[in-house]
Amino acid sequence: MADVKKIATREAYGNALCELAPKYDFVVLDADLAAATKTGIFKKQYPERFFDCGIAEGNMMSVAAGIASTGKPVFASSFAMFASGRAFEQVRNSIGYPHLNVKIGATHGGISVGEDGATHQCNEDFALMRSIPGMVIINPCDAVEARAAVEAALLHNGPVYMRFGRYALPILNGDDYKFELGKGVLMADGTDVTLVGTGFMVSTCLEARELLAKERISARVINIHTIKPIDKDILVKAARETGALVTAEEHTIYGGLGSAVAEVLVENAPVPMARVGVEDTFGRSGTVPALMEYYGLTAENIAKKAKEVISKK
Amino acid sequence: MNEARIKELKNIANDVRIGIIDATHAAKCGHPGGSLSIADILTYLYFEKMNIDPENPKMENRDRFVLSKGHTAPGLYATLAHRGFFPVEDLLTLRKIDSYLQGHPDMNKVPGVDMTTGSLGLGISTACGMALAGKIDGKDYRVYTIIGDGESEEGQVWEAAMFASHYKLDNLCVILDLNGLQIDGPITEVMNPTPHDKKFEAFGFHVITIDGHDFNEIEAALGEAESVKGQPTVIIAKTTKGKNVSFMENSVNWHGAAPNDEQHAQAIAELKTRYI
């Protein structure tokens, strides 16, 4: 896909904040990472609506809750590691429990952070955020979806966790793309197996589909941009119609998309299933392609797992 | 403030203290010690100072209060009940399965509670958020928060202090309940957070130290806080944990324990003699 236009979803996040600013009343907080989270784009255009909280993520999340309690929505941004990890308890108790209107813009999610390595590669945020009642979790697959997701998050009444990536990804969706919170997207149809991806891994699933097609295997590809609440209907339908399923995510295989899908299927339509993700290990430094290869987050591995689950039907 | 009003406030604070004892006795658990230590401050805030309306608890331009030391919810609930936010008899449902009076304050369940708190260190940050929102929107409401002296061992309290000072939140008044005791013992022995005055001063606060049981001093300090511009104020209120219940005073054992029937009867009898 070398000829395809590539943009990081974090870039789309910063741009979306600017686009939405004239239309809606909200403020943006960051914890000294505005240049990296891309809220800096907003800061430049709307300095009076941007507040840096310094390197104090816990305080930032509780401040966000206080602002939201007065009726003003807040975007609070940091790296996924600190937004969901460092500040977990503040997100749970100050934002989640009172169900306040705070939108967490967590960038640098997953292994594709790259060279910064394990301390900054957050592979646990879906698991952490899924455990908070009422928290909506969105992980867009491209810049178009990311832009739409930011507006959908703003219009949703309650806390939302949005994961954005550092790495530039191909644009998969057209300009007419309509984002529906909580609804999976059928990216490509197929009959032998379903590949369920989220974020970065949606394009990888589409590549895996092409590999499988060469072996005359027909794979359906579903994009789950909303990890919670998850679209049960599209998953159950896919399981029933294709009889086997593989999930793919830039996240530990414990507690993320794979777990969420397994929970749905085991209760509604059990079929042979495999989870592609980071397998109970920490990340490491490396270029993004090298890391994706190292951790098996590749089209080849997804295709291999697809053939395995098909053989178990 | 004239003598007659002070007398009235003292009697209201006594009502609040009786409410705290009744509620924790009925619940058979809860935190009476630190509730009793802030009863006078809460009484002054809710009956004299704050722009609030029990008939319209979500009034947009109301003054806000955050009980950062959320475990002393019985003190806040008793104050709100006597101020008319909900029936006083409901205090006896504290911590029960079908009650709206949760063990720690819940803004979505209790009329008059402006922020959900309980986890120490978080409340003061939320108060900063409310104060900042007031500044952004050009509103003239003020934000009050009571933090515990033990709570000041939480790093987040100082993150919040840095924030309040950085954004010149002069509409924020932090009140530190300096009763000197935390669960494991005297604060200076468990993890000494003192000197609070010098620390807050270094963080850019206007610092006032008072006797937290003296209504004239409480009034003067809150008035001074309102007149300070360009920086937040902290009122360091020296208080007695378990104030006005003889066997609870200055005893760490009453941080998180409820009176039994006999102790309840004694505490109520003692408090009833204090009406003037």
Summarize this, please?
The complex is a heterodimer of chains A (313) and B (276). Chain A is an alpha/beta fold. Chain A is built from 13 helices and 14 strands.
Describe this structure in words.
The complex is a heterodimer of chains A (313) and B (276). By secondary structure, chain A is α/β, with parallel strands linked by helices. Chain A has two domains: 6-170, Rossmann fold (3-Layer(aba) Sandwich); 185-311, Rossmann fold, CATH 3.40.50.920. Chain A is built from 13 helices and 14 strands. Chain A has helices at 9-20, 34-37, 39-45, 57-68, 80-86, 88-96, 125-130, 143-155, 200-214, 232-242, 257-268, 288-294, 299-311; strands spanning 6-7, 27-30, 50-52, 74-79, 102-107, 136-138, 160-163, 169-170, 185-188, 193-197, 219-223, 226-228, 245-252, 273-278. In chain A, helix 9 links the parallel strand 10 (193-197) and strand 11 (219-223). Chain A starts with 5 loop residues before the first strand and ends with a helix. With 276 residues, chain B is α/β, with parallel strands linked by helices. Chain B has a single domain, classed as Thiamin diphosphate (ThDP)-binding fold, Pyr/PP domains (Rossmann fold, 3-Layer(aba) Sandwich), CATH 3.40.50.970. Chain B is 42% helix and 12% strand. The mean pLDDT of chain B is 98. The A-B interface holds A 27, 48-49, 51, 53-54, 56, 58-59, 61-72, 74, 89-90, 93-94, 97-99 and B 60, 66, 106-108, 114-116, 118-119, 121-123, 125-134, 136-137, 155-156, 159-160, 162-163, 166-167.
Spell out the blueprint of helices and strands.
The complex is a heterodimer of chains A (313) and B (276).
Chain A: E1 6-7, H1 9-20, E2 27-30, H2 34-37, H3 39-45, E3 50-52, H4 57-68, E4 74-79, H5 80-86, H6 88-96, E5 102-107, H7 125-130, E6 136-138, H8 143-155, E7 160-163, E8 169-170, E9 185-188, E10 193-197, H9 200-214, E11 219-223, E12 226-228, H10 232-242, E13 245-252, H11 257-268, E14 273-278, H12 288-294, H13 299-311
Chain B: H1 3-27, H2 32-37, H3 39-49, E1 64-67, H4 73-83, H5 122-136, E2 143-148, H6 155-166, E3 172-178, E4 181-182, E5 185-186, H7 187-191, H8 196-202, E6 206-211, H9 215-227, E7 233-238, H10 261-272
Parallel strand pairs in B: 1-2, 2-3, 3-7, 6-7
Antiparallel strand pairs in B: 4-5
